[in-house]
Amino acid sequence: MINPLEKPTEGGLYKQITWAVVFPIHYLCRKTMPDCRAEQYRNWYPFTFFMSMMWISFYSYFMVWMITVIGTTLGIPDTVMGLTFVAAGVSVPDALSSIAVIKEGYGDMAVSNAVGSNVFDILICLGLPWFIKTAIIKPGSDVPVISKGLTYSTLSLLSTVVFLVVATHLNGWKLDRKYGIILMAWYLIFITFASMYELNVFGYLNPPECSSDY
């Protein structure tokens, strides 16, 4: 088993630089999350799971903050940054887990993971923060959404779900190379039109945001 805390002796200078960059992350994770595969920490899995969720929350907050600053600096709306960079960044773990189960021959699990992840993102990752904001932090308040383009993006998302079911049915309910290419092409079409909506290409749908203290 490769130990990420040990300096690599192969791979050249690039490998050593990438190891040094991510070394603090690996070190903190190793020191705060017990390895449940070891006999002495076999019963520590609830604590390891809790700490992993804490680290994911921290890194997610840090990533969103960086994306927001970059988008503001470049004049790119938050909705566009969310549709592209943030969505891609938070979906990488889902993609890797799907690849892992597909290699084991569990294609249905990969599809369920993708669909279930999006359901969780929409219902919990939106509902829970809004509930905390409007019910606990500022009771009775609301969270304004400044984008008329989200209506078109939501309809496009619905069409994507319909396309997924139809394409899967027409492909005989199996996953192959052709099916993967079709899905990736549909994603490029969806993300292009959604970004164009948010960039006001099809009309004045996304007005500039008001000043905020946050």
From TrEMBL:
The keyword Isomerase does not apply. It is found in: Membrane. It is a multi-pass membrane protein. One of its GO terms (biological process) is intracellular calcium ion homeostasis. The chain crosses the membrane at residues 49-74, 80-102, 114-132, 152-172, 179-197. The keyword rRNA processing does not apply. Residues 45-195 form the Sodium/calcium exchanger membrane region domain. GO terms for molecular function: calcium channel activity; calcium, potassium:sodium antiporter activity; symporter activity. Keywords: Antiport, Calcium, Calcium transport, Ion transport, Membrane, Potassium, Potassium transport, Signal, Sodium, Sodium transport, Symport, Transmembrane, Transmembrane helix, Transport. One of its GO terms (cellular component) is plasma membrane. Its main location: membrane. Signal peptide: none annotated. It comes from the Eukaryota. Belongs to the Ca(2+):cation antiporter (CaCA) (TC 2.A.19) family. SLC24A subfamily. This is Sodium/calcium exchanger membrane region domain-containing protein. It comes from Tenebrio molitor (Yellow mealworm beetle).
